[in-house]
Amino acid sequence: MNNKISEGILFTDFYQITMAQVYFKEGMHKMPSRFEYFFRHYPDYGAHKAGYCVNAGLETFIKWMMSVRFDDESINCLRQHTDLSGRPVFQEAFLEWLKNEGNFNSLSIYAIPEGRVIHPNVPIVVIEGPIALAQILETSLLNHLNYQILIATKAARVKESALGRPVFEFGMRRGPGMAVNAGARATLIGGADFTSNAGISYQLGYKPKGTHAHSMVQAFLALGKSEIDAFRACAELYQDSSVLLVDTIDTLRSGVPNAIKIFTELRDKGYKPLGIRLDSGDLAYLAIQSVKMLDNAGFNDVNIVLSNQLDEIIIWQIITQIRSEAARYGVNAENLINRLIYGVGTSLITSKGHEALDGVCKLVAVFKNSEWKSTMKLAENTGKTLNPARKKIWRVYEDNGKAVGDFLSLDTEKPYDMDEIILRHPMDNTKKRILKKSDIFKIEELLTVIMDKGQLVYKFPSIEEIRKTKEIDMANLHSGVKRIIFPHEYHVSLTDALWKIKENLITKIKDEIGRQ
Amino acid sequence: MNNKISEGILFTDFYQITMAQVYFKEGMHKMPSRFEYFFRHYPDYGAHKAGYCVNAGLETFIKWMMSVRFDDESINCLRQHTDLSGRPVFQEAFLEWLKNEGNFNSLSIYAIPEGRVIHPNVPIVVIEGPIALAQILETSLLNHLNYQILIATKAARVKESALGRPVFEFGMRRGPGMAVNAGARATLIGGADFTSNAGISYQLGYKPKGTHAHSMVQAFLALGKSEIDAFRACAELYQDSSVLLVDTIDTLRSGVPNAIKIFTELRDKGYKPLGIRLDSGDLAYLAIQSVKMLDNAGFNDVNIVLSNQLDEIIIWQIITQIRSEAARYGVNAENLINRLIYGVGTSLITSKGHEALDGVCKLVAVFKNSEWKSTMKLAENTGKTLNPARKKIWRVYEDNGKAVGDFLSLDTEKPYDMDEIILRHPMDNTKKRILKKSDIFKIEELLTVIMDKGQLVYKFPSIEEIRKTKEIDMANLHSGVKRIIFPHEYHVSLTDALWKIKENLITKIKDEIGRQ
């Protein structure tokens, strides 16, 4: 496919363009507007649920945004689009405007940086600028952020479950098309140490990781050679980095004994063998038995790479099983657990159990007659009623450094100057609490300027820097919030002033309906 | 991101390249080999399960394959990759070979065409050629086919559930990054009539579809105008294609009455109003009430577009609810159902409930000493033992035209000449059945030559042609196999000759283990 059309500025929902034309026709297209991107719920994987998310995708989105515009080719696509009567859907005046001003150079973007821990109903990215262009940008923002946050969050959970041991991302073969590159990037942010994906690794400045496949052993066997010949060929080439896959024939009767012979040869030549990989069967049991054989042969620090349908729950289960059973076989459980490496594939790159973050991008204010006016949408489902107005986002820490909650204020409020902050639940009108100045150890504003009217004013951090941000934020979460199953709920609130604006808007719209 | 590295030939698992170097070092790299791509299980969505899959992704994969090669940039990435001791992982002789012959121009590809209905354990794509290059190609094959088959299959299920009514793909905002383009293509193959994704629609020669968003109504409200002003602005611009979103304020008290006013204006001007969209609340109930109001105003053929978390089960439930309840409100259920259009988003583009097809690509034979030698892999899980040898794939039809089963034969077998075909279950040794010539109405070979030693010898059909292929295959499936819940199991078998080769290889490998 020539992807120029499908990955350029037309990477958007069609209705964004038809709405842009409505705005153009009404003379509203340049009206400054504010759209906020947020998600409503943490991923819920079925039997388990997240208590936090990890922000990712911003740089990918911004670089896309800066690289696209309406050019002749994309405008021609629109020009040729006719309605049921055969008339052009898009008028020439509108196409002319798109040709001249159809880019994102007039928009400002505010965002919470990548790697930060984030929560529901908190704006993560804000677009301000001409409504017609903000509308066209909306789909791409949703697309890039929803997927990368989803995957970074899953990676953080897997890493927590792995108790800090290395996690390798192995999912590209079953992940969603070319998006596995964005997905692999998100796993590196969220918790994977490396990925098997060669191209994205090199592009991001990482070394890809891998072992070998069953096919290599099979090929040797088909030539009348043996598993050990295959292992030896591999070990001779990659003397200090060979991880031998031991389950092509029979893990404990063939694979591990053959690996030990090869490791002995390597040791005799002065090399330190790296590891074996288990890819089928009862991984906990096989890990215990393999380590026992390796230890008996004097390889007390060879790693065991586990793979095959792993996720945060299966890793937790494997560790639990090893802790219960290893001693029975004379193996030290904690020593074994500290030699494990997890190759996590499909479940990570697809966020198994929860396929999509429910992020939305909503119009919350427009600028008219020299002032910002808040906008509102009621809904059949009250949980979907949005939080209007231009606002700021704050995170509050207690004196042990732990984050205790996020809240949304009006743009003009200065909560760090207030003696007490009245906080309201974003959905439940009956819930209210008061935060006293003395309860607050630190208060931090979360949104940063990324683009100022089309100018990039933000220096994108490296993946390593983003990882550090994530580690600091994770360390500042209460452990109850990080629990894999049934996590404690982190507080997200509105200030009383913002809450009142929301209530007034709801009342006003309901009055309108009553009058009709 | 500069995606040249990550979307070029390095779009592969790193171990494919390290294995290629092992083969090179052993002088095996040019050995002709045969890899077969197949999946092991139909998607299982939890409470429901597929009884068939729809093939998709081949053209995307082949075009990628033909467009990439090892160039200076990708080779430099490999050259700079050092091991733990700081030595280069890849030797110059190997890199030199990659530079000269590191492309897919020597490979042959056989495949089942896109749009065909496909089943587990049946090879869908076959790679034949030098083992080192086939290995490097494996990941991309898996990636492209696994995702598109998964999504085309979900789309086919949604379309079946929709009883033939139009399905619009609306998922790009929550789908997986740029892969939503490949995903949208797969939905068009599998069952979606249109997609909201503007770029991929134009690229594939379709018209994208859409309505408008809540934000458009909100923007008008914020300017002191009303919902009806927003509707009118939209209807004046898109006179014969306006679908008005009626749930921004209150569906039945505001949205539908306002839409009816606008439709009346359109009708007075001689236009035929197209439809309304319901996006929240109890969609079945709101559809009944909306249609009642529309009918009372004389709009008996305005469409109702439904959206909000739809999938094949929710659509089925909505139709069931309408059939139970419409009459109570004086609405004709079948008339209403025949006016419904389904906007299906997240659940379709992410295959909600089953995130990844379990497709694998396995080495089944290598060519040595002038003959093809079958290869085998045992496994801890017996269900993963593969079917060896070069083979052909056949589909058998009974005299009513329905497909009754697929089977795999040796490449040299001619089943259409046999008086009876002994068929074996691929996993269960105890299951065997005999197909008599008289039972066979038609027998069809499924694999087609796509690339012959690097030459494209296949003309890619248009999406429209692929859709027709899919419709024919769907019509030839027994309805029990198409059932959304608990489908009947379609038969996939091995010929007795192929089965014997498999048994012999298993015995031989087990003997090997015994001798060690």
Structure characterization notes:
The structure is a homodimer of 516-residue chains. The first copy, chain A, is α/β, with parallel strands linked by helices. The first copy, chain A, folds into two domains: 4-153 and 355-388 and 447-490, nicotinate phosphoribosyltransferase, CATH 3.20.140.10; 161-349, Aldolase class I (TIM Barrel, Alpha-Beta Barrel), CATH 3.20.20. In chain A, 40% of the residues lie in helices and 19% in strands. The first copy, chain A, has 18 helices and 21 strands. In chain A, the strands form four sheets. In chain A, strands 13-12-1-5-3-19-20 form a seven-stranded antiparallel sheet, covered by helices on one side. In chain A, helix 2 runs antiparallel to helix 6. The longest helix of chain A has 31 residues, at 131-161. In chain A, 55% of the residues are buried. The model of chain A has no long low-confidence stretch (mean pLDDT 94). Chains A and B meet through helix 1, helix 2, helix 3, helix 6 and helix 7 of A and helix 1, helix 2, helix 6, helix 7 and helix 8 of B.
